[in-house]
Structures are given as structure tokens and as C-alpha cells.
Design goal:
With 638 residues, the protein is of the alpha+beta class. Helices cover 51% and strands 21% of the residues. Strands 5, 6, 13, 14, 15, 16, 17 and 18 form an 8-stranded antiparallel beta sheet that branches. A 4-stranded antiparallel beta sheet has the order 2-3-1-4, with helices on one face. Strands 7-12 form a two-stranded antiparallel ribbon. Strand 17 and strand 18 form a beta hairpin. The longest helix is centred in the middle third of the chain and has 29 residues. It is elongated, with a radius of gyration of 35 Å. The two termini are 61 Å apart. The relative contact order is 0.11. About 2% of the residues have low confidence.
Length: 638
């Protein structure tokens, strides 16, 4: 055991390692990205294709069907394909089977290639490039919901909302907020924002007199209303890039477009009325009775959601300073950081309570110095755990914090067993080194076995298949790492610190004498009660069986609820309506406004954070539903 004595007596190495782990662990904890859930890829792919001006029937026939057919023919391992076609937009959701990450990446490459080939060969030329993105825990649900409101549903609201969206899509340039430069926004989706349009209202009697059709007008506009690159031109002054600009937001720019007829060439302005307007809205959003545009912000996989929300709040505060001049105001109506903040507070509170209880109990039975040396094992173990999980790329999310909270109750078990054995030998007069060596020889096997059996109880959770297994495997991983780090603390750090502190009870103080007397009295009473239980085995066994039966009866009777995943407290709830067929979008919006006012009367003061109504759309657990007769009111609670 000479090598072990030399190792444990190397106090410099132990103290440097202890300090390094604490410092690196604290830095890792501070820098780890905060998130609500662990980063998990659901093996879902969303394909969105925009075809401006097309009806839902045309979208289904000319866009959705060709894309679906090509995917089903060539892409393997697809579990199902779900598509939604509505005016101007095709949305295809592809769910793959549970395959490994490398195989999934191959399938995504196949899907992207097939989508691009189909777009080039079969889709209409006016259709935009398909947007393809993977759905995971980071972007499946928005990290923040923001509304931009104005007194009127006009061009000013649309322009302000578009500027806010562009700012957010630029990953929130924090230098404008004098807060540093932080990125983290994955995408920003808008709801209720109608794009501007130029309307050409032709005069049928003039078209009939000239012998032309509306298709001739469409062909003319398609030819002239576009920007064209014409290459470059070499001159004596240098090379010039030639570009013909044909698009403009001014309707008067279309008036002189020539249209060839049987009676000669006429201008577009002579046979049609030109005006600038907005596209027909498919969704109406209202906030506090005012017109609004809602923006949903989703974060990147490695982004810190708490920092991102601080960024959003800072941006909103900065923009609202100018609301009197811009005529628009921004509100944060919901975010996904509440449960994460609560989990962080719970973990920190439990760690402080555990540290205090360990310190108090070990001081009562083992003395001040041993109590301090045992208690500092908790921050060491937590720091080591955070250092490892940060190194392997895991975010600090609710599931990780759950694993830490579970492990907190077991972190000092092995250290207490080791230090109690050392304490007993020091009381008998052994020197510190002999007490440490003999104690480690005595408790190494049982303590290690105890920790390994606990690890063996948690590790099988990592073998659960599917998305549930991806969520659950973080918990046993964190618990296992924490227990292994606690063994390092119990077998190395704690003995080295006791040797360095030169703990000895050869000349006990008055407090130590009282402590030993109290411990002797507790052992004596415990032994007496233990002997009584041995003398009456039937009564003792009956009491144990009665407790077991009561426990089983409580479970069978339903007094204990079975819920594999306890849900968060309700913070969001929705009121859905479906109007009668033939109802307009405006009718649905008016009814939603009445329902919202009635529902708000049932809420207590201080309960509501925000409420927003959507006419023309409903968010459901599986997919969003669209239609003029559908509506929804979202209530966000504090």
C-alpha cells in the first residue's frame, strides 16, 4: 500500500485537481446553453413550397402531388407522408422510421435531391424554391411569440412588422442594444401579415372590342414585369454591368406596357385599371382588440434560450421607445423559458438545502472539520458532472436538471460511509494515514458495489427505443456521471483532505466529549429496540408486512396517480371555434372578439399574461388547420 499512501499524501495534486474541477465546472455551468428540452431530432422533415396566386386545388394537383409521388418512389425508410394544400402554399411533413443518425442524414440528402429534381422538372416555373428543414426539439415549438400591433390594419402595420421580422432574422444584432453580439434565432414565422400586390383590373368591353383575352394581358405582364441581367459592356471607361429593371411597386410603371392587338398596339393603362393594394388576407390576428401581426421565434440547436429571451425583451423595449413616432407597439405574449428558469431554481435550491443538511448532520455526529470536508464534496461532484456533460455537448435543460436533482440525494452517501469509518478509527487512537488506509480497505468493496447497483438500476433506461428513449437517456447518463464523480471524491479527495487537515481525536475537546456521549446514548437505545424486535419476530414481521400491504393498497385504490411524464402547469390554453359554412373571415374574427371578452371575465386578476385571437387558422396537436370558418383564441397565463 506504499503507492496508495504516497498518492493520498500528495496534497498539492489533490488540491490542484479539486480547485481545477471546481473552476472548470463553474465555468461550464455558466456557459452551457440553457434549453427546455434536450436536443433531439424527431426524424421529421418539413417541405414548404410557395406558389403565389394558385388556389388550393391547383396547389394540390401541380405542386403537392408531384412532390409526394417522387418522394414515395425514391426515398426509403419513410414512415408516413402528411400533406396540406391551401391557397398559395404546399406543406408536406415526412416522418422517417427510427433509424440511426448517419442513416437519417443519408435519407435527408436523398430527399433534398429528389425535391430539387422534381422542382426543376415538374413544378410550375412561378413556384418558389421549396424550403426544407428538419424538425427537432429546438424548432418544433417557438421559443417566443411576439405581436406587433397598430391602431389600423394598414400599410404601416405591415411595414413595421416586416422590419421587426427582418431584425429578428438577422439573429438579433445586440450591438444595437449595447449588449454585445449574440446569435441564436433559427427562423421567424409571421401570421397575419399580407404582402403588397399590384392589381390589374381589366375592362371586359374594351378587351372584346380589341379582340384580345385576359391571357394576352398576363403574357405581356410576365414578359415586361421582371428584372433582367444583360451581361457586361466593355467601354473605354471600363467594364459596365448591364441590368434591365422592370419591376416596381408603383402601379403607374405598368401603364405603358404595350399589348399587341388586331387593331394595333395599345397600352395596358388604356384597357385596365391599375392599383396598389394588399393580397387577400388568409388570417386575421387581433391583440387587445387591435389589428396585429404575430411573429413566432424559434431558436437554433446550440442557442441559450434564456439569453435569447433576454435579447428579445431588450429588442422590444428598445423599439417601443419610438412607438409614438412609428405608430406600432410590440408585445411578448409567451415564451418557453418559465419551466427552465423554475428547474434551475429548483436544482440550485435543492443543492443548497442538501449542502446545509449534510453540513449540519455531519457536524452533529462527526465534528466541524470533518463536516466541512464532507460537505465540500457536493460542489465538487456537481462541478465535475457539469464539466463532463458540457464537454460531450449536452445542453442544460429540464431533463438534465431532473437527473441532477435525483442524484443530489445520493452524492454524499459513499463519502459519509468512508468518512464515518475513518472517524471511528481516529477515535480509537490510530494516526490519520493508518485510519484512512484501513477504512478504504474495509469499505471499498461495499461502497463501490452499492454505487454500481444504483447505476445498474438507471442505465437500462438508456436502452428505451424511439423518441421517448432519446428523452429518457439523459437522466441515467447524468445520474451515472454524478455517482462516478462522487466515488472519485470519496476515495481520493476526501481522504487527502483529512490527511492534510491532520484530524485527530487523541486530545478531544469538551464539545467532542459531549458528541461522543450523545452518539453512545443513541447507539445504546437503538441496540435495545433492535433486541426487542428480535425477541418478538412475529410482531416485527407483521408490522413490516402491514406497511407493505398499506403501500400496495394505496397504489391499487388509485390514491396515487400514474403519470409517466408529469406535465407542466397549464400556461397556455386555447378556445377553438368553427363557424357555419359560408361565414367570412371577418365574421369569424368578430365572433372570436366576443368570445375573448367573455373568457377574460372568468380569469382572476394577475392570472393573464396575454390573449390573442386568430381567425382563419387553428393550431392543433398534430397540424395547423386553415379556413375562413376556423378560429382560435390563445390565452397565455403568468
Amino acid at each position: 500500500m506504499y503507492w496508495l499512501q504516497r498518492f493520498l499524501s500528495n496534497h498539492v495534486l489533490a488540491n490542484l485537481t479539486f480547485g481545477l474541477v471546481i473552476v472548470l465546472g463553474v465555468l461550464s455551468y455558466i456557459q452551457m446553453p440553457r434549453a427546455k428540452d434536450p436536443e433531439i431530432n424527431f426524424n421529421w422533415i418539413n417541405v414548404i413550397t410557395v406558389f403565389p396566386g394558385a388556389s388550393a386545388v391547383d396547389i394540390e394537383r401541380r405542386v403537392t402531388d408531384p412532390l409526394e409521388d417522387s418522394l414515395r418512389r425514391t426515398v426509403k425508410d419513410m414512415k408516413f407522408v402528411l400533406s396540406t394544400s391551401r391557397d398559395g402554399i404546399s406543406n408536406i411533413l415526412v416522418r422517417f422510421n427510427q433509424i440511426d443518425e448517419r442513416e437519417f442524414d443519408k435519407r435527408v440528402i436523398d430527399l433534398r435531391r429528389e425535391i430539387q429534381n422534381t422542382y426543376s422538372d415538374e413544378l410550375p416555373t412561378d413556384a418558389d424554391d421549396p424550403i426544407i428543414f428538419e424538425i427537432g426539439t429546438s424548432n418544433a415549438f417557438p421559443s417566443a411569440m411576439v405581436v406587433v400591433t397598430s391602431a389600423g390594419d394598414d400599410e404601416n402595420l405591415r411595414r413595421r412588422a416586416r422590419n421587426v421580422k427582418k431584425d429578428m432574422e438577422r439573429s438579433m444584432p445586440m450591438d444595437r442594444l449595447i449588449c454585445g453580439d449574440i446569435t441564436g434565432v433559427d427562423r421567424v414565422d409571421d401570421l397575419g401579415m399580407s404582402d403588397p400586390e399590384l392589381h390589374v383590373s381589366f375592362l371586359p368591353d374594351r378587351l372584346e372590342g380589341l379582340g384580345i383575352t385576359p391571357a394576352d394581358i398576363v403574357d405581356t405582364i410576365r414578359v415586361y414585369f421582371r428584372d433582367k441581367s444583360a451581361g457586361d459592356l466593355e467601354t473605354k471607361d471600363g467594364k459596365w454591368i448591364v441590368r434591365v429593371q422592370g419591376t416596381s411597386s408603383d402601379p403607374s410603371s405598368l401603364r405603358d406596357f404595350p399589348i399587341v392587338t388586331a387593331k394595333g398596339v395599345v397600352t395596358l393603362g388604356s384597357i385596365a385599371e391599375l392599383s396598389r393594394t394588399r393580397e387577400e388576407p388568409s388570417t386575421i390576428v387581433r391583440y387587445k382588440g387591435q389589428p396585429a401581426v404575430m411573429l413566432t421565434v424559434t431558436k437554433q440547436a446550440d442557442a441559450n434560450v434564456l439569453e435569447l429571451l433576454d435579447l428579445v425583451n431588450g429588442y422590444i423595449e428598445e423599439r417601443n421607445r419610438y412607438k409614438s413616432s412609428t405608430g406600432a407597439e410590440i408585445f411578448l405574449i409567451d415564451d418557453q423559458t418559465i419551466s427552465t428558469r423554475q428547474a434551475l431554481e429548483l436544482m440550485q435550491t435543492n443543492a443548497m438545502i442538501g449542502l446545509g443538511l449534510v453540513l449540519i448532520m455531519t457536524w452533529i455526529f462527526l465534528g466541524t472539520r470533518i463536516a466541512l470536508l464532507t460537505s465540500i464534496g457536493i460542489p465538487f461532484t456537481l462541478a465535475g458532472t457539469f464539466l463532463i456533460i458540457s464537454t460531450i455537448g449536452i445542453t442544460l435543460n429540464n431533463t438534465v436538471l431532473l437527473g441532477v436533482v435525483i442524484a443530489l440525494g445520493m452524492l454524499v452517501d459513499d463519502a459519509v460511509v468512508v468518512v464515518e469509518s475513518i472517524y471511528q478509527r481516529l477515535q480509537h487512537g490510530l494516526d490519520a494515514m493508518s485510519a484512512v488506509i484501513k477504512s478504504l480497505q474495509e469499505v471499498f468493496a461495499p461502497v463501490t458495489t452499492s454505487v454500481m447497483t444504483t447505476i445498474a438500476a438507471f442505465l437500462p433506461l438508456m436502452l428505451l427505443p424511439g423518441i421517448l428513449g432519446e428523452f429518457m437517456k439523459v437522466i441515467p447518463l447524468v445520474v451515472t456521471l454524478a455517482l462516478l464523480v462522487s466515488l472519485v471524491e470519496a476515495y481520493w479527495m476526501l481522504p487527502s483532505h483529512i490527511l492534510a487537515a491532520n484530524v485527530s481525536f487523541r486530545n478531544p475537546s469538551k464539545t467532542q466529549i459531549k458528541r461522543e456521549a450523545m452518539t453512545h446514548w443513541i447507539r445504546l437505545r437503538y441496540t435495545q429496540y433492535l433486541l426487542k424486535s428480535f425477541r418478538h419476530p412475529i410482531i416485527s414481521i407483521s408490522v413490516v408486512l402491514l406497511i407493505i400491504m398499506l403501500a400496495i393498497g394505496t397504489m391499487v385504490s388509485g390514491h396515487i396517480r400514474f403519470n409517466f411524464f408529469e406535465s407542466d402547469a397549464v400556461r397556455l390554453f386555447y378556445v377553438n371555434i368553427e363557424m357555419s359554412q359560408g361565414s367570412s373571415l371577418e365574421d369569424t374574427s368578430k365572433i372570436l372578439e366576443k368570445i375573448e371578452k367573455r373568457a377574460l371575465q372568468e380569469l382572476e386578476p394577475g392570472e393573464l399574461r396575454a390573449s390573442t385571437s386568430f381567425a382563419g387558422q387553428q393550431f392543433t396537436q398534430t397540424e395547423p388547420l386553415f379556413g375562413d370558418t376556423l378560429g382560435q383564441v390563445m390565452f397565455s397565463l403568468n
